[in-house]
Amino acid sequence: MWEQVSTRSRKSFWMSLKLFSYLCAIHATTQGLANNQRKVLTIGGLYASGAMTTWQNGSGIVKTVNEAIRFINERSQLLPGYKLEIEWRDTKCQLGHGVQALFKHVNEPPTKIMLLGGMCSAATRPIAECSHLMNLIQVSYGASSFYLSDKEKYPLFFRTIPPEKGHNAGRLAVLKYFKWNRIAIVTEREPYYEAAFTSLTKLLKENDITIVADEFLGESKEEEHESPIKILKDRDARVIVGLFSEEKAVEVFCQAYKQGLYGEKYVWLLIGWYRPRWWEIHSARASKLDCKTEHVTEAFGNYISTEFLKIGPSSPDIIGGEKAYLTWKNKVDELGFYSGFAHDAIVAMTLALNSSAEVLARRNQSLADFTYNNTEMAQLFKNSLSKVTFPGFSGRVYFNKQGERKGVVTVSQMQDKETKILGNYTVLKDKLVLKSSKFVWKGGNIPVDQMTTVDKLLKISPGLFGFFCAVEVLGIIMAVAFLAFNICHSDHRFIKMSSPRINNVIVVGAILIYIAGILLGIDGNFVSPDVEAIVRCRFSTWVACLGFTLGFGGMFLKTWRVHKIFLNRTKKMVISDFQLFAMLGLFISIDLLILMVWEIVDPLYITKHYTGREEYSPSTDTKYKPYYIDCTSSYTSLWLGVIYAYKGLMLAFGAFMAWETRNVTFSALNDSRYIGISVYNVVFPCALGMTVVNVVINRDACFAVLSVLVVFCTTITLCLVFVPKISTVRADPLGTNRPRFAAAAALNNQTPQTRPEERQQLRTEPNRELNPSTRPKQEDRQRANTNLI
Ligand SMILES: *[C@@H]1O[C@H](CO)[C@@H](O)[C@H](O)[C@H]1NC(C)=O
Ligand SMILES: *[C@@H]1O[C@H](CO)[C@@H](O)[C@H](O)[C@H]1NC(C)=O
Ligand SMILES: *[C@@H]1O[C@H](CO)[C@@H](O)[C@H](O)[C@H]1NC(C)=O
Ligand SMILES: *[C@@H]1O[C@H](CO)[C@@H](O)[C@H](O)[C@H]1NC(C)=O
Ligand SMILES: *[C@@H]1O[C@H](CO)[C@@H](O)[C@H](O)[C@H]1NC(C)=O
């Protein structure tokens, strides 16, 4: 009975077991069929939340991507036979959490076919370094760091967010467009901005754009933003690239306002993704720094901003549907603009998988066969992804060989507190399109990158030159008059006795010195620097040297002859005019020799000599650098030394002769007193004048001092030589008087006070060694008469 029951129940047990297994089998079959129809592909999603992600909305990204996956799974043309799923993990924008997220993705089933993310470069870099070892394609939507462009290190890394490098190329294009070659950069101390800074400086250097200042903004302490701005001002930065957040921007512009670094001369290039009216959002920060929002807006002026196109144009071909696109666009402020890049990343992955699936199907393989050791499939995915192109939420998506998105940079300008999009830059084609007429500039013109620097030649004021020129011309006329007088009256006994031919030479010398004086004033007012080098530097030196030798040389030789006649009583010295001219010729030859050697070996040339006192004209924004033209040669002081020594010797010789013959009383013969005065007149003012000229750099003062020297020395000397003669000839036009009396008469006429003294000298000769007595004097006279006439 029990047995019966037990067999029956056993039977029914087996029956039910059979039924169960049958049901199970049916179930399994249907399951298998379902799986055959739609194999699940799981994507490893990476997002970020937490304190370090305030600049982007992680949940907005997750929401947008989930929406996109739902849409993809609904489409029969997208991944037919597969069902896309995503598993999200949080990287918290930190290296450690990022690596942990990768471990979990890899270690926990199901097998992930690709990775989507991450959001920040800090977490994405270590993940990308490992993911390719597991043959995982990684498509980031948020990591724009330029480090990730390294294909050697990150071979399977792609990104839909355009890298910072491309953004900098846009900035560079704008700088070049406006011809700004001298800029400053202000960077916030934060990895994102610092990375942008690094790649920007590299790019600028490659393109020969000078960075006059690169300043970093310190940590949150407001006072610290003062000095970077000060440095910008000191270095006269006009075009400033700002790589900082909105919050810092408020502080920077507040400082800029306080320091006066604003206005028509300055232009800022900022990051374009600041929120509309961002300065109002952060007005609390501004007021903490005693700034009003008006100050901030005043300081940033019409700044230019560049940013990647984040919201592409609407198009019916958008994958995900135009309706979805419009919905997303309306909510983009809430979702964050990275959500657009994330959406495009998942679409790009889908399309790559779709085309890979076709290839695999031909090999009797399926996407679901992917394992972490399947290098072949990873390469297939990589190739497919490289070829993907489609219109996405963030504009057209395609990748270059490095797996980078070469996007479009939009260029905008802040006008009336509104951002106006005025152009775009296509990174791939390196093409900038700007509506330049729509840009607004405070000063009316595009600001320049630096003040214009103009060299300003210091010239002698024309009035001063005119005055001295006139004086010197008068001097020449006077000299010519003396010459004429000398020639006309050469038969006059008194003149005859005064070596008229040597006197003519003296006059010619004086005329040459006057001419040299005029040549000194021939500067940039009249001629080009090349001509100036010849006229003012070289020619005037020759003229002055020869003039001096002729003038003073002649005078001293005359005294030398007197000296020889009167003081060498032992033998009769007869020195003819010929001998004197031969001596003069020797002097001149020495001059010519020195000058010629100078001219050949080391000729004078002009150099620009900047005075260092720069003037700034605010109205034209121009800096004037005054300079004057200096005559120099390699060894100027050596040459001048030789010439000065030679002339000095001549002067010393003259002075000595004048002293020796001071008591020869023939006024017709003896110019010794006048020569003494002349030497005095030349040496002291010249020494003084040269000192002044070397110290004073003012062109006018120099010229005036030199001209006064020329006019004063030459005129006094000339007058000392000729005026007594003229008065003598006047008093005695026929030359009947003996020279002695003529001299006496002249003295009588001119300076009656000196007459008794003179007479006494003539009559009662004191017993001086050098003094000839009355008797020899007769002899002297005779000798003089025979020798000179
Ligand atoms: C982020 O996105 C989520 C989902 O759309 C939204 O609810 C939230 O308000 C957003 N947060 C911010 C700060 O915009
Ligand atoms: C995806 O692949 C299927 C065939 O596997 C093809 O028919 C479809 O057009 C593809 N979709 C796209 C968007 O390329
Ligand atoms: C794929 O499978 C089919 C049928 O199972 C077979 O006929 C074909 O030869 C296979 N192709 C390859 C490339 O293995
Ligand atoms: C991957 O590893 C598994 C087991 O370790 C092995 O069976 C398979 O053949 C490998 N696949 C490839 C593509 O190397
Ligand atoms: C760039 O600007 C030009 C002129 O405004 C426009 O025609 C073009 O479509 C823009 N390109 C992109 C990619 O937005």
UniProtKB/TrEMBL annotation:
Region span, Disordered: 748-789
Membrane topology listed for this record: Multi-pass membrane protein
Entry's localization field: Cell membrane
InterPro entries with a match to the protein in the record: ANF_lig-bd_rcpt, GPCR3_GABA-B, GPCR_3_C, Peripla_BP_I
Signal peptide location: 1-32
GO biological process: gamma-aminobutyric acid signaling pathway
SUPFAM superfamilies tied to this protein: Periplasmic binding protein-like I (SSF53822)
Domain G-protein coupled receptors family 3 profile: 513-733
Transmembrane regions: 464-485, 505-527, 539-557, 578-598, 638-659, 679-697, 703-723
Keyword entries, A-Z: Cell membrane, G-protein coupled receptor, Glycoprotein, Membrane, Receptor, Signal, Transducer, Transmembrane, Transmembrane helix
Domain of life where this protein originates: Eukaryota
GO CC annotation: G protein-coupled receptor heterodimeric complex
Biased composition (Basic and acidic residues): 755-768
Molecular function GO terms recorded: G protein-coupled GABA receptor activity
Protein's UniProt name: Gamma-aminobutyric acid type B receptor subunit 2
Origin species: Desmophyllum pertusum
Lineage of the organism: Eukaryota, Metazoa, Cnidaria, Anthozoa, Hexacorallia
Record gene name: GABBR2_2
